[in-house]
Structures are given as C-alpha cells and as structure tokens.
C-alpha cells in the first residue's frame, strides 16, 4: 500500500518578538513567572508592518519549494488553513499562489485552491483533504501544498493577549513521504461549543477557562474514538505526542490526562499502585462529582511520580521548545509541535525511522482529531534543513509601546501607517491596496 503523508516542512515566523517576562509582564504589572512557569511562554512572534498571513505563508512555501527543487507544475493543490482571513470570498491560497507565480517559472492554473476553516484544527483537516485526494488517485503524480498561517491576536486587555503569536507552517503532502506517513485510523471528538469564536469580528470572543475544559473533553473523546479503530494506546507506543499548543501550560494538562488514560489497566498502573493507589473507577462512586474529585486527586499524585515525569520529559516536553518562543500560531501550532519534536530528535541523535507519533489537533468551536504517524527514513535530512533557530534569533525585540503600535497596525479597524521595524530582504511583502480593496504583494530582493 502506498504511504501518504508529510514530505517536507517549512516554518516562517513573524519577524518581531515580544519578550513576555521582561517586557509584557512589567507593563501589565504582573509576575513574570505567570508567563514562564504558569503559561510556559518566554516570548511571542508578531508580524512586522510589511507582513501578514499571505507573506508569511508564501515565504514559507517559497523556501520549501526552493529547498526541495520543486516547480509549480509539481503542485496540484494549495490549501490554506487560517482563522485570520481578511476576505470572505477570495481564498488566501490564491494570494499565495500569486506570490509564488512571481518567483517561479510557469503558473498554478492547474492547481485546485481553497481555504479551510475550523479554528486551529483546520491545518490538520487540510492535510486530511490532501491525503484523501492522493489516496483517491486524483493527484496525477503531483503533491499538495498545505499552508497553515495565522496572526493570532486578541483584543488588548483580553486574558488571551498573553498567548498571542504569528507565523506560518508550509507542508508538502505526497506519496512516499520523507518525513511522516499518516495512519488511516483517526479519532474525532466534535461538538457544538461556544468557547472561542469570531462572529464576523477580527479579535475572538473567548471564555478562556471554559476553552481549556472543552479542549480536554474533546481531546479525550478523540482519543477514545481513535482507540475504537486503532486499538488501545500505551504510553510507550509513541516517540512523541505533539498536541495543539495554544500555550505550553495547556499541553501540560493534556499530557497528564492522556497518560492517565493510557496507563489504565496496564502494567504501569499496577507498578504505580503501591505509590499512589489504583485509578478510581466510576462504578465505585455514588455520584459523578465524587468520582471526578477522586480522579483529580489521583492526577495530582500521578503528576509527581518519577514514571510520569520521565515520560513527560521524553515524549511531551520536546514538542514545546518552539512554542515557548513564538506563542500560539492557531492552525500552525500542532505542526510547530511536530517540527519541534523531530528537531529535538535530530539534535539529540535519536534514531526515529519507523517510530510512531500520536498527533492531537484541536480547534475551538470545537473539534479534536487524533491520528498516528510513522516517521520515515528521510526525516532527519528534512528537519536538519529548518532554519527556525536563526529566524527566531534574528527577530526584532520590541518595546511595550512598539507592541501597542504593531497591534494597531494589524487591527483592521485602525490600520495605522508606520515604517517597518526590520528591513525586508529576500521575501514577499505586503505592498498596499488595489482599486478593488484587494491586498497587493511584491517580492523584495
Ligand atoms: N507563578 C507561577 N504560576 C503562575 C503565576 C505565578 N506568579 N501566576 C499565575 N500562574 C499560573 C496560574 O496558576 C495558571 O496555571 P494553572 O492553570 O496551572 O493553574 C497559569 O499561570 C495562568 O494563570 P491564570 O489562569 O491566572 O491566567 P489568565 O486567567 O490570565 O488566563 C487563559 C489564562 C485563560 C489561558 C488565557 O490566556 C486565555 O484566555 N487564553 C486564550 C484561550 C486559550 O488559549 N485557550 C486554550 C484552549 S482553546 C484552544 O486551544 C484554541 C486556541 O488555540 C485558542
């Protein structure tokens, strides 16, 4: 059977950096450790004045294509996943295709283009669409370009402001992929929820605490649904588990919940029984509340055990390295987590070919999706070509007043006009407005 999956990955970060403990926390009169220890964040990425979801996506896609020696004719579809779109009709993928056509020979007239929306899970859904298109044999030997690109801004003063970020992940989905082959098995947890939404408004309406509960509830449902087709999961089955990462503190909770679920009725639960007892079973309790209270106590004990800490340090923590320094990239976030894990494996000399990842995606509103991936032989060469560390180091570190300005630049209701903080070089830039109110783009050598 032909494997289909992720053949190449490229990351493009917004070119500005907001230091959360040292710049943001003092301006908000808050303890820096709320960011570093509580949320698990060091800094956020922001788009410079000349950047937006199109430039970041197009710059990631261009670098990916150049690195892999691809031509426009090799691409049969372009799907953009975003929750920051600025056009209700013309998809962002057409703007990105227009940019690529400025730099590569030929055109993308043969390519099917679209835009996917379901909050942060849309990036994974776009991969899914590409997988199905290839598996159906409709791709004529071509690959799909999936671009997850977002400017994740919250209204100023919203608690979500601490978790902002901006960047794009471009992924090539092909037959016989170099990085990871996707499992046929998938699990879903999907329900009509109003935890985070943008009803025709730029900045989200968020019920932050509830959104965290909904994330965990849908993720758990998705894991159970995945197990119903793929069989029970065990913590040792997976080299890494990249989760959607709105902020690393959220993944800390998801990791603990997942571990508790996976060790139930296993030798790990037996081994831990002497230390912290066995997991409470629902049938042992008179009420749901009593059962939930007992589960919470068990989890509090579980997270202090060496077994859990060791597993978390190996399987979850390495997925968070990039997120800690860029914040939430919405649709790109789980794909940043995967890249972060693979990068960790490459840097520590870990042999990963044939090993499995479990990937947990989530979008508010709300839907979680879980599938497995098998790491392919070409993973290391591909990941070693990422230059994300250089990009992060090159970001311009903004003062708090500059943060307020750049937030206003990207606020559709304000749109103030200031000079860029960085000098564009070798990249697509936003170049003003056309006579039909379209955004225009050019390439700066
Ligand atoms: N030292 C150490 N830790 C501290 C601290 C200090 N001085 N001060 C606070 N903390 C800890 C808190 O205890 C808390 O940790 P726990 O949750 O483990 O208890 C953490 O830091 C955050 O502090 P608060 O809960 O007080 O923070 P907050 O109320 O200001 O906001 C938030 C947190 C609700 C997540 C907010 O940032 C938010 O609304 N974010 C946007 C919504 C979001 O990201 N939701 C996630 C799930 S939805 C999703 O995933 C989709 C998506 O991408 C948006």
From TrEMBL:
EC number in record: 2.3.3.10
Domain Hydroxymethylglutaryl-coenzyme A synthase C-terminal residues, every copy: 195-411
Keyword ATP-binding in record: no
CDD domains: init_cond_enzymes (cd00827)
Keywords: Acyltransferase, Isoprene biosynthesis, Transferase
GO biological process: isoprenoid biosynthetic process
Family membership: Belongs to the thiolase-like superfamily. HMG-CoA synthase family.
Protein's UniProt name: Hydroxymethylglutaryl-CoA synthase
Gene assigned in the entry: hmgB
């Amino acid at each position: 059977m032909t494997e289909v999956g992720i053949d190449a990955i490229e990351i493009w970060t917004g070119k500005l950096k907001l230091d959360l403990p040292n710049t943001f926390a003092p301006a908000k009169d808050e303890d820096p450790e709320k960011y570093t220890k509580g949320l698990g964040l060091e800094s956020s990425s922001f788009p410079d004045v000349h950047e937006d979801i199109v430039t970041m996506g197009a710059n990631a896609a261009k670098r990916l294509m150049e690195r892999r020696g691809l031509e426009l004719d090799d691409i049969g579809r372009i799907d953009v996943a975003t929750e920051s779109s600025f056009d209700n009709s013309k998809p962002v993928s057409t703007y990105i295709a227009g940019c690529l056509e400025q730099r590569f020979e030929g055109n993308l007239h043969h390519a099917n283009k679209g835009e996917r929306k379901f909050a942060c899970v849309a990036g994974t859904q776009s991969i899914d669409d590409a997988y199905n298109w290839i598996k159906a044999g409709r791709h004529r030997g071509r690959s799909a370009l999936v671009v997850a690109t977002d400017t994740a801004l919250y209204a100023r003063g919203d608690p979500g402001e601490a978790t902002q970020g901006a960047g794009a992940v471009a992924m090539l989905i092909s037959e016989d992929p170099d990085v990871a082959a996707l499992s046929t098995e998938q699990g879903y947890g999907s329900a009509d929820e109003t935890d985070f939404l943008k009803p025709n408004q730029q900045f989200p309406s968020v019920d932050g605490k509830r959104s965290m509960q909904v994330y965990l509830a849908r993720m758990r449902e998705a894991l159970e649904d995945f197990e119903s087709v793929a069989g029970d999961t065990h913590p040792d089955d997976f080299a890494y588990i990249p989760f959607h990462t709105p902020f690393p503190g959220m993944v800390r909770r998801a990791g603990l919940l997942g571990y508790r679920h996976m060790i139930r009725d296993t030798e790990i639960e037996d081994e831990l029984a002497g230390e912290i007892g066995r997991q409470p079973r629902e049938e042992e309790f008179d009420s749901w509340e009593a059962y939930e209270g007992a589960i919470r106590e068990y989890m509090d004990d579980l997270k202090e055990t060496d077994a859990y800490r060791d597993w978390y340090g190996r399987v979850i923590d390495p997925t968070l390295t990039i997120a800690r320094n860029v914040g939430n990239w919405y649709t790109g976030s789980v794909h940043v987590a995967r890249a972060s894990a693979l990068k960790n494996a490459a840097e520590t000399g870990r042999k990963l070919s044939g090993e499995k990842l479990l990937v947990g995606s989530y979008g508010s509103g709300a839907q979680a999706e879980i599938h497995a991936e098998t790491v392919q032989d070409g993973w290391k060469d591909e990941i070693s070509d990422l230059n994300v560390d250089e990009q992060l180091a090159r970001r311009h570190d903004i003062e708090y007043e500059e943060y307020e300005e750049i937030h206003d630049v990207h606020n559709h209701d304000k749109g103030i006009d200031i000079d860029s903080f960085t000098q564009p070089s070798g990249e697509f830039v936003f170049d003003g407005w056309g006579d039909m109110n379209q955004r225009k783009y050019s390439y700066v050598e």
